[in-house]
Amino acid sequence: MPAITNHLPTSELQALDAAHHMHPFTAGGELAAKGARIITRAKGVYLHDSEGHEILDAMAGLWCVNIGYGRSELADVAARQMKELPYYNTFFQTTHVPAIALAQKISELAPGDLNHVFFAGSGSEANDTNIRMVRTYWAIKGKPAKTIIISRKNAYHGSSVGSGSLGGMTPMHEQGGLPIPDIHHINQPNWWSEGGDMSPEAFGLARARELEDTILAHGEDRIAAFIAEPIQGAGGVIIPPSTYWPEIQRICDKYEILLIADEVICGFGRTGNWFGSETLGITPHIMTIAKGLSSGYQPIGGSIVCDEVAQVIGSGEFNHGYTYSGHPVASAVALENIRILEEENVLDHVRKVAMPALHEMWHGLADHPLVGETTITGMMGSLALTPHKDSRARFAMDAGTAGFMCRERCFANNLVMRHVYDRMVISPPLVISTDEIALLGQRARTALDECYAQLKDGDMLKPAAQ
Ligand SMILES: *Cc1c(COP(=O)(O)O)cnc(C)c1O
Fold first, then answer.
1. What pTM did the predictor assign?
2. I need a surface site. Which of 147, 363, 384, 407 has the fewest CB within 10 A?
């Protein structure tokens, strides 16, 4: 079968895109003036665009293509499933083999008594499920006042009204009337930016204790749950100090509240274990999954639920669900993705080969004059750009200006790194080889050099007043 090739010149495709396609998280007018980059195909860790560039994708798409691009096994499974049963719902006392098999497999992989899966089409939908599930759980248990969900500033939990409310992104809350009622946000454990003179350990404890303060301020009888990413992803790969999660766990155990780990990025191998909760030592009641669950080959997400919560929710009718909950094609593709992760020992490759090489390369960038800290856990890392390393200073200019410039220099050097304000972020496919990691490092350093030169020429290396 011929590849689906680019049949129009790039400029015409860009004009059509600008005329008809509204992009997520994008200033449409600005992009229309510039023209979007057109990605035509991908293989392994490389993207190809309509201009013939081969680009190393150090973001695995949007943190999701864990097994890399171009695995035809997933395409074959999807085609077979579409021919056999392209769709059926699971609402009205029916089920099907792909949903059964995937739920069983996820339960086997998930730690402890996380043995039940409620499927969704995405991470956002799964977190919407979680909001309704934890509040319904407490209502059934005779505690309907337990409705408050505590989350964190600069968290990302999705973009629907519910999940966007759980998230702590100010620019999102400014649009469309978010957050919904009874969501509270505590500060994030971002030591580099917010730790001041405290040691990381003391800072981690202090930030965790904000959870306890918030529970006590509202009363335990009002709090339903705490939700957090084991490691914040979209917030800039913020790896919490070692003291943070043990203290959060202690607080969740002490008070009667549910703990939701949003594993949408951390799950399925990203941190070197199947789930970030294992790496960070967290015992949640519910896990949110999506992204790496199917390596992005099909849109699918879900909530993995512990025995007790599933049993309570199952005692009545849970008035909730999505047309595509447990979609057979998406489920079959996710199962095939997990089969590849298991049979090709991808987690072994991560732990023994990719992680050591990636960590060494990443920390090697710390000597660059523009780089403040380099931080990495498993296969997700970030570095802070700074005009002054010793004081951990921010730039005097608008946050994100330097980060955006660096990202543009990455693109110019055929590398995809994302910027979150002035942090540069990587989350490459888990199957990346040591040669590809070395190339990633070379291109990142070149991009940093070019960005540094630009900032210097433009007299933009001034630190903000502290
Ligand atoms: C991406 C993401 C989501 C949202 O998933 P979508 O599939 O985009 O709806 C939720 N939580 C985390 C931690 C994410 O990174």
1. 0.97
2. 363
The closest-lying atom of ligand 1 relative to the alpha carbon of residue 265 is: 15
Q: Over pLDDT 70: what percentage of the chain?
A: 98
Give CATH for domain 37-67+345-457.
Answer: 3.90.1150.10
Integer Cα distance of 463 and 392 in angstroms? 9
Query: For the chain, how far is it from start to end, CA to CA, in angstroms?
Result: 60
Pocket test for ligand 1, best of 62, 238, 264 (most atoms within 8 A of CB): 264
For ligand 1, the distance from its centroid to the CA atom of residue 451, given in whole angstroms, is: 30
Round the CA-based radius of gyration of the chain to a whole number and report it. 22
Can you give the residue ranges of every domain in the chain? Answer: 37-67+345-457, 73-343
Indicate the top mutation candidate among 65, 157, 266 to test ligand 1's pocket, ranked by most ligand atoms within 8 A of CB: 157
- Is the CATH code 3.20.20.70 the one for domain 73-343? no
CB of 232 within 6 A of ligand 1: the answer is no
Ligand 1 atom with the shortest distance to the CA of 62: 1
438 with 244: CB under 8 angstroms? no
- For position 5, what pLDDT does the model report? 60
Distance CA(336)–CA(160), nearest Å, equals: 28
CA distances from 70 to 45, 76, 408, 458 (A): 9, 12, 26, 42
185 alpha carbon – ligand 1 mean position (Å): 18
For residue 378 and ligand 1, the question of a CB distance below 6 A is answered with no
Indicate which atom in ligand 1 lies nearest the CA of residue 158: 4
Q: pLDDT category, 465, cuts 50, 70, 90?
A: confident
Residue 6: which pLDDT band, with cuts at 50, 70 and 90? Answer: low
Nearest ligand 1 atom, CA 234: 15
Q: Whose CA is nearest to atom 6 of ligand 1?
A: 123
